[in-house]
From TrEMBL:
Coiled-coil ranges (or none): none
Keywords, in A-Z order: Glycosidase, Hydrolase, Membrane, Signal, Transmembrane, Transmembrane helix
Name of the featured protein: Hydrolase
Cited PANTHER family: LYSOZYME (PTHR34135:SF2)
UniProt source species: Corynebacterium aquilae DSM 44791
Length: 341
């Protein structure tokens, strides 16, 4: 399946241009669409054809720059240059790891940013792993990283996260809701419940399994909450006040917006040996999830059970809460599987 006219974000080391506030046509049918990529989109070091990505209707590309301390994406410089030459607006993100110094991570990220073509989208802090750090510790870590990155770049960073993680691992703090939010929510319609006191999303990561010409494997797909001109304002540092409106749905993602207790219950029952793992597939299909994503979910659960890494505590929290979506569940399990790998 292909998703056109969706959207994303990223960064630069240029100074913020003082801006103003106004209301946008949020997530309209012509909302700018973009991808975000990392080494996962380079299987066997295969290059991305960025001209094909642009021709497939994408407006921007957010490229992973750094992670933790000491890791720089080996494809960052080439992807940034080639995407910019293809006419895409480029950006980047840093994946934070809270067990090492936040200020050193911010400094390393800022240094790498200086190599990216300009103009670029605001810098992004990707925060989706806690590495055993408490919610209070996560809040202190984010605060230190954001303060240092602002000092080094003069720019206000974007926070990338997903609802379950922010509410449970960051304590659902509202301290950072003055920063733009890039929310991962795998579903057809914009989520109506946001974490952390945010009133709206600036960016929406709509799926982790989009297909775009020029990228050899699945990739994340994003929508910018505004228009093309407002996306340019965002690059310049204008703080946008965006309000949500309906966006055309994607049929394949419609089931992902459902509450997930039935599916979580089946996973926990399978992990306890009460039912066969195949029951998960049956429940997923009964909920309207397409066969491909349903099978992928079962395979991920089987992998995590076999490795003793299934996040039982998180699944029990989801089951007790009852309001998290199938998309939230998929993001949680995929992240655990990636970390375990």
């Amino acid at each position: 399946m292909k998703f056109r006219r969706i959207a994303a974000i990223v960064l630069t080391t240029a100074l913020v241009v003082p801006g103003y506030t106004y209301v946008a046509d949020a997530f309209g049918v012509n909302a700018p669409s973009g991808v975000d990529v990392s080494t996962w989109q380079h299987p066997g070091d295969q290059p991305i054809n960025w001209h094909a990505v642009k021709a497939d209707g994408q407006s921007f590309a957010i490229i992973k720059a750094t992670e933790g301390l000491g890791y720089v994406n080996k494809h960052f410089a080439e992807d940034s240059r080639a995407a910019a030459e293809a006419g895409l607006l480029v950006g980047s993100y840093h994946m934070g790891r809270a067990t090492s110094d936040p200020r050193l991570q911010a400094a390393e990220y800022a240094a790498v940013l200086r190599t990216q073509p300009q103009p670029s989208l605001p810098p992004v802090l990707d925060i989706e792993y806690n590495d055993g750090v408490s919610p209070a510790g996560m809040q202190a870590w984010i605060r230190a990283f954001v303060d240092e990155l602002r000092s080094l770049t003069g720019r206000t960073p974007v926070i990338y996260t997903y609802r379950y993680f922010w509410e449970n691992e960051v304590g659902n703090t509202t301290e950072f809701n003055d920063l733009p939010l890039w929310l991962a929510a795998y579903q057809s319609a914009p989520p109506t419940v946001l974490p952390g006191g945010w009133d709206y999303m600036t960016m929406w990561q709509r799926t982790g399994s989009g297909r775009v010409s020029g990228i050899p494997v699945d990739t994340d797909m994003n929508l910018f909450n505004g228009t093309d001109s407002q996306l340019q304002d965002f690059v310049a540092g204008t703080q946008l006040n965006l309000t949500p409106v309906d966006v055309p749905g994607i049929d394949e993602l419609a089931a992902f917006g459902q509450a997930n207790p039935k599916l979580v219950g089946a996973i926990l029952a399978a992990a306890a040996g009460v039912v066969a793992v195949g029951t998960i597939l049956t429940v997923a299909r009964d909920m309207g999830i397409d066969i491909g994503p349903a099978q992928a979910l079962v395979e991920t659960v089987q992998q995590l059970i076999a490795e003793g890494k299934l996040p039982v505590g998180d699944l029990q929290n989801m089951l007790a809460n009852g309001t998290y979506s199938v998309g939230d569940l998929i993001i949680l399990l995929e992240n655990v599987a990636k970390f375990a790998g």
